[in-house]
Amino acid sequence: MNWPQHGLWLMGKTFCRLRPPGVGKTHLAVSLGVAAILQGISVVFFTVADLVDLVQQDVKEDRLERRLHALCTPKLLILDEMGYVPLDQRSAQFLFRLISRRYQKGSIILTSNKSYGEWGDVVSDYVLATAMLDRLLHYSTTINIRGESYRLREKRKAGVFHDFSAKPVKGSPSSQKTQGEGQSEINSRYEDL
């Protein structure tokens, strides 16, 4: 389906992409953003970490309302990497206000490595996380991307990279064999998103 031609950008639709790092969430979000731009639709892209930095600076310079207004203006807002950086209370509240103002008015593409159930930890407030998700998920499409990091796949095959979460097997050199989560166990962690 060619989403931009079907007008989904204009309906306040939200697209959430969830999965582990390196499986193409950002690439897909940017590609959809470019497709929207080619259709003449206004697009703004931020990583959540960069947005948090801006919010902190805007608080110091008393520009928070202006930032909020500016982020509500484009038809499509792409927020990348939700969950990589925990949000302080002010940033979490700002993100909630942004999502609330854009609700049913402007589209959001959001990528995350966290399941929805983990968002309370990210924003340090389960009630606020629930309120965010209530608005984001009401008119949303969630895309779960499975697989191993494309950036690390070849390095792992060559023996250059080993899973940091794996534990060395007793009696074996750590560079040869590891015991821990295999790819199927890692993928199953994300099954219940």
Explain the overall architecture:
This protein has 193 residues and is of the alpha/beta class. The chain has two domains: 3-144, P-loop containing nucleotide triphosphate hydrolases (Rossmann fold, 3-Layer(aba) Sandwich), CATH 3.40.50.300; 152-189, no CATH class. The protein has eight helices and seven strands. The protein has helices at residues 25-38, 48-60, 64-72, 89-102, 119-123, 126-138, 150-157, 183-189; strands spanning 14-18, 43-47, 76-82, 107-112, 140-144, 167-168, 178-179. Helix 3 (64-72) packs parallel to helix 4 and helix 4 (89-102) runs parallel beside helix 6 (126-138). The longest helix has 14 residues, at 25-38. The relative contact order is 0.18.
Question: What layout of secondary structure does this protein have?
Answer:
Elements: E1 14-18, H1 25-38, E2 43-47, H2 48-60, H3 64-72, E3 76-82, H4 89-102, E4 107-112, H5 119-123, H6 126-138, E5 140-144, H7 150-157, E6 167-168, E7 178-179, H8 183-189
Parallel strand pairs: 1-4, 1-5, 2-3, 3-4
Antiparallel strand pairs: 6-7
Helix pairs in contact: 3-4, 4-6
* Count of DSSP-assigned helices: 8
Helix content: 40-55%
Determine the oligomeric state from the structure. Answer: single chain
- How many discrete domains? 2
Order of helices and strands: EHEHHEHEHHEHEEH
CATH level-3 fold name of the largest domain: Rossmann fold
Helix/sheet category:
alpha/beta
Q: Quote the distance from N terminus to C terminus.
A: 24 Å
